[in-house]
Design brief:
Helix content: 10-25%
Radius of gyration: 37 Å
Oligomer: single chain
Distance between the termini: 76 Å
Strand content: 35-45%
Length: 529
């Protein structure tokens, strides 16, 4: 026993085998750590490739969805992009799940893609006998690009209140407002108007009034808004260079009467993809009926008019929400009751027949006047239409130069229709330029000084203006009513002011759409998850 005890003490003090012992004890940990590192690197490689593939698939699907020409194939496009980005995990990854998802309060406004890949890892699979599953998910939101037109465009790039709407104005045309001004108050509201413009666009700020009083689409601080006519120059045909003066000829008989006009607007609602298959719809927020009446004394009326009441009814359709078969349509029925009294026919009034040419110093319409087809150059002064006269002109254009302006006052029966391309071509204007100028009723020369008195339209229900009024240097104040028959009424001016009891309930015939494009936005896609 003594010898054995001595041997143990000697063995305990012996350090010659420590290194081998430590290595032996550390080998399992070393092998495990190495195996885990290999598994981690392999797992990370698979995960990274799978995640990249679903990211690219979601983005590709969103881009397809953002284009109306490819929106139906978004799932196929996502699957193609997914497969194109797989290499290492291509043999054991699943087919992707592609579906529309909601994002940021929207409905179906993003594409979500998910996929898995399952395979044993070298080390953990050896120990557990089970395969590892990797999951990847991606979501990309999309916004479709859009083209916006507008029937009221303010082209001044700096003005505060470039479009100002005040008083008890009624603007329910649903064809868009646009202001190129970058001012913080590019579009302002004063008073308590009734506005349903469809969309309101500005390079600067828009009055907060729209947020609480309308359902219009509001887009402020926009880039890309343009003057749709900035590249055009007014025509100067040879016949328009002839100097002319305005005068009235011998009178013709005319009939006058006291006219009481009562206009009632009532509204009904339908749902359907178009007017032909729409059915009555119980709309939750119907517009109340309204009535506007006016009395005009000693008004010129058509020959043969007798004392009595005439009732006319018309309807106009406008889409207010929805899409496809769920479009909601508002149908406005306009009932006009016109009562004539004190009808009287006298020997008539002087008659003016105007020919295209250059008129200097303005003209004050003092009789029933007809403008013949062609281009009228107003060299300074004002063309003023007042009084109880009938003023007509078919296929005409007024070119304003040297500060010339227009002043249309209530009381006159006005029906002016813009010039057409064929009329311009017949007067020596090139076909390319004629196509661009077609439909222009009033065109202020860009080199003209701004009108000191501005331009004014204070019309009534007998004021019919078909065409575009373009005033790049001058403002226009609208304080009456106007209607259309054959073409849309477009106003593009440096500044636009709607005041008083302006009533602009339609800018276009029911079978036409406004065609002035002021901005086109590109689709927007972003990876959000």
């Amino acid at each position: 026993m003594g010898r054995f005890s001595s041997f143990c003490k000697k063995l305990r003090r012996d350090k010659s085998g420590n290194a081998a012992m430590i290595v032996a004890l550390g080998i399992p940990a070393l092998i495990g750590g190495t195996g885990l590192a290999v598994d981690t690197a392999q797992w990370y490689l698979w995960k990274r490739e799978l995640q990249f593939a679903v990211d690219q698939a979601a983005i590709a699907g969103a881009w397809a969805r953002a284009d109306e020409d490819t929106e139906g194939s978004y799932a196929e496009r996502a699957a193609q992009e997914y497969a194109a980005n797989l290499t290492v995990v291509a043999d054991f990854a699943t087919q992707p799940t592609v579906q529309l998802a909601n994002f940021s309060g929207g409905s179906g406004n993003s594409v979500a893609v998910s996929a898995t890949a399952t395979r044993e890892l070298p080390f953990s699979g050896f120990l557990t006998g089970e395969a590892a599953t990797i999951y990847a998910y991606a979501q990309a939101s999309f916004e479709e690009g859009a083209t916006f037109t507008s029937c009221l465009v303010a082209v001044d790039e700096d003005a505060e209140g470039a479009i100002t709407i005040g008083g008890s104005s009624v603007l329910t045309a649903s064809c868009g407002l646009a202001a190129l001004s970058t001012d913080d108050e590019a579009i302002k509201v004063n008073g308590n108007p009734d506005i349903n413009a469809g969309w309101v666009l500005a390079a600067g700020g828009i009055d907060d009034w729209f947020d609480t009083h309308t359902d219009d689409t509001i887009m402020e601080n926009m880039s890309g808004l343009t003057d749709p006519f900035e590249d055009l120059s007014p025509p100067n045909p040879t016949e328009s260079q002839t100097a002319r003066t305005y005068s009235c000829t011998a009178p013709t008989p005319q009939t006058t009467a006291d006219v009481y006009e009562e206009v009632t607007y009532s509204y009904s609602y339908y749902r359907g993809s178009n007017q032909n298959n729409a059915n009555p719809y119980n709309y939750s927020n119907p517009r109340p009926s309204s009535t506007v009446d006016a009395t005009r004394l000693d008004q010129i009326v058509p020959a043969g008019t007798n004392d009595g009441t005439v009732t006319t009814t018309s309807t106009s359709w406008s889409q207010i929400s929805g899409n496809g078969n769920n479009r909601i349509w508002e149908v406005r029925t306009t009932t006009t009751r016109t009562t004539y009294s004190n009808t009287y026919t006298d020997n008539g009034v002087p008659q003016g027949t105007m020919l295209p040419g250059t008129y200097s110093g303005g003209m004050h319409i003092g009789c029933n006047t007809t403008f013949s087809t062609g281009v009228y150059i107003l060299n300074g002064g004002t063309i003023k239409i007042t009084g109880q006269y009938e003023v007509t002109g078919s296929n005409v254009m007024f070119v304003l130069k040297n500060g010339a302006s227009i002043d249309i006052a209530g009381g006159a029966n006005i029906n002016l229709t813009a010039i057409q391309a064929s009329d311009l071509i017949a007067r020596g204007v090139s076909a390319a330029q004629a196509d661009k100028l077609a439909g222009m009723l009033v065109f202020e020369d860009r080199s003209s000084t701004a009108s000191g008195n501005g331009n004014k339209i204070n019309g009534n229900s007998a004021t019919v203006l078909n065409g575009t009024i373009y005033l790049p240097n001058s403002g226009i104040a609208f304080s009456g009513t106007a209607s259309v028959t054959s073409q849309c009424l477009m106003i593009a001016a440096a500044t636009i002011t709607l005041t008083g009891t302006t009533n602009m309930t339609t800018f276009c015939p029911s079978d036409q759409d406004p065609s002035i494009t002021v901005v086109s936005t590109t689709p927007n896609v972003k990876l959000v998850a």
